Amino acid sequence: MARLSPENEVLAGQIIARYPRSRSALIPLLHVAQQQDGWVTDEAMAHIGELLGLTPAEVLGTCSFYEMFRREPVGTYLVNVCTNISCQLLGGEELLEHVEQRLGVKAGATTADGMFTVEDVECIAACTEAPCLQVNYRYFHRITHQGFDALVDDLRAGRRSDEIPPHGTTTRLRQTIPAGRWAGVGAVGLAPEVG
Amino acid sequence: MAVTDAPKIVTTRFDLEDGHTLAGYERTGGYAALRSALRTSPAAVMGEVKAANLQGRGGAGFPAGTKWGFLPPDVHPRYLVVNGDESEPGTYKDRLLMERDPHQLIEGVLLASYAVEAKQAFIYVRGEMAFAQERLAAALNEAYAAGLVGRDIAGSGWSMDVVLHWGAGAYIVGEETALIESLEGRRGMPRLKPPFFPAVKGLYLQPTIVNNVETLANIPWIVTNGGAAFAALGTEESAGMRLFALSGHVRNPGVYEVEMGKTTFRDLIEAPVLGGGMRQGRTLKAFIPGGASAPWFYEEHLDLPLSKATVDKAGSMLGSGAVVVMDDTTDAVKACARVVRFFAHESCGKCTPCREGTTWLHQILQRILAGDGRWSDLELLLDVCDNISPGIAWPPRQTTICPLGPSAVSPIASALERFRPEFEAYIQGGRHAAARPVPVEVLAGVAGR
């Protein structure tokens, strides 16, 4: 739990180089930190600040605005149940109650074994597929209570690990730009940042 | 009115096994528009998009060509920012476009960048959309390797980069100036317009065009077939095809690409090939025509065409193309309270009327739902609404920088006007009438946060 690893520091350098101004890489680098540790540690934030020339307070100021960034550990599987209007109309609130009963925790809490954190979330853009939920940001459309129970059994037995990476990993595939293909003209003529 | 046989534009590859790959995209005509555009001038591409009368598909419905025309001449560098932060409750179409046809979006980005002479584009995808991020990363990697993005694009001598970026959970970032703040690595709070109109002072205070995913996905077809062919679809006022996410109490919820202006809400909800009608044995109570921010519509609005001008005139908006259907089993107070909870949760906190007002509205509605409502609460709700959006009119006036606060007013104004007795029943009935939460037997757990 700490600063970015040497490999991730190299990745950070590649990401920073894609932006005309380095601070634009802040949110992507916070994702790198969360992918590394499952949550965003104070040490990682300080390290990111060093890489971008920002104070820890500036890094925290941005980090704390965005819901996906967790500043303390969460379960291996983050279960986000949508209860917004389209899901509410088709049983989203009842689904959340079922998830809470099945896992034995209220929304906002983590099971004692550290496997699951449950959240009651806002619309996740699967409205025609209600009710829906995400596990580590992977979608489950039109999910029934029985379907959720089967999913929990699978997750506990490790049968979905190919499909659902640990919390912190959103995309498993990153943009990579082959040497010589980068145009690099985005910052041409841009005045240096003041302050 | 009927379901028309107009050609599909942005969904043609949705059912192909390999529609998301470069091979599948090129086999079905992909990147031909780019190659032909690169033999013409940026002004020619701009001309086709202006002729198409393509209204923005994100929510405001502003014509894309007109927006592009606001760029001050000879100020560089310019940027293109793609708004893929789809989060308006009820809205589900940009995610599909990014997942199922990422190259179509990339080609649209390239064509738009060529037209407005942008040197770099950023595709800002919503943070929660992991699969869309993966599909776009794979597509961009293919496009870079094939020489279609980056240095000397398709051998034309024109160079520009496209960078995939994603957020981290904040509805407000869908607002274009908040999106720019977020892309600069800051808290996603909207900027005041003026002076921060993106076309003039956008990303890094340079001229910037922010366009929605669906808007850009239409551009390759427009360049291939001509702006006039696009404008010939739909009506003079609302041109082209458009994606509508139809959700709620219909038989066939789904995302449908239909002809604007010639298709009605009734067609969308009732046609057998579209919504298929209400659920068995149920009748329509209300529907939201354009996302959670929109005032509600009812039976008497069903025959309105899906046209921006018509819906605006009738007192609501097509917004983000999200139609949420509620049948006669729906509890209007609960539905209204859920939408208001959303806006209270998503208020960024910059403007006091929104930050405090939406929170008050949420708390008052929760009090009513819990059976602790007071008779004065109904007027109090409207009073708070009036402080956020003076006059509670449509289109809304606002005491805030952006429209988020006034968006929380729409469901309250709608539900209170039409279903006031339901609110009164909660207050009259007290805790006997209240919606009771089911207690959770906590087997083993630790408090989070």
Automatic annotation (TrEMBL), chain A:
EC number: 1.6.5.3
GO terms assigned for molecular function: 2 iron, 2 sulfur cluster binding; metal ion binding; NADH dehydrogenase activity
One Pfam family it belongs to: 2Fe-2S_thioredx
CDD domains in alphabetical order: TRX_Fd_NuoE (cd03064)
Obligatory cofactor(s): [2Fe-2S] cluster
Keywords for the protein's UniProt record, in alphabetical order: 2Fe-2S, Iron, Iron-sulfur, Metal-binding, Oxidoreductase, Ubiquinone
Database matches in Gene3D superfamilies: Glutaredoxin, NADH-quinone oxidoreductase subunit E
Binding site for [2Fe-2S] cluster: 82, 87, 123, 127
Keyword Thylakoid: no
Family label: Belongs to the complex I 24 kDa subunit family.
Protein's UniProt name: NADH-ubiquinone oxidoreductase chain E
Organism (species): uncultured Acidimicrobiales bacterium
